[in-house]
Amino acid sequence: METTSAIIIIGNEILSGKTQDKNVSFIAKRLAAIGISLTEVRIIPDIEDVIIDTVNILRKKNTFVFTTGGIGPTHDDITAKSIAKAINTELCLNKEAHKQISDFYKSIGEELNIYRERMAMIPKGAELIDNDLTKAPGFRIENVFVLAGVPKILENMFSYVEQKLPKSDPICTKILDVSIGESKIAGILEDIQEKFKDIDIGSYPYETDFGYNTEIVFKGKSKLSIEEAYIQVRNLVHKKGFDTK
Amino acid sequence: METTSAIIIIGNEILSGKTQDKNVSFIAKRLAAIGISLTEVRIIPDIEDVIIDTVNILRKKNTFVFTTGGIGPTHDDITAKSIAKAINTELCLNKEAHKQISDFYKSIGEELNIYRERMAMIPKGAELIDNDLTKAPGFRIENVFVLAGVPKILENMFSYVEQKLPKSDPICTKILDVSIGESKIAGILEDIQEKFKDIDIGSYPYETDFGYNTEIVFKGKSKLSIEEAYIQVRNLVHKKGFDTK
Question: How far apart are CA B37 and CA B220, in angstroms?
Answer without folding.
Answer: 10
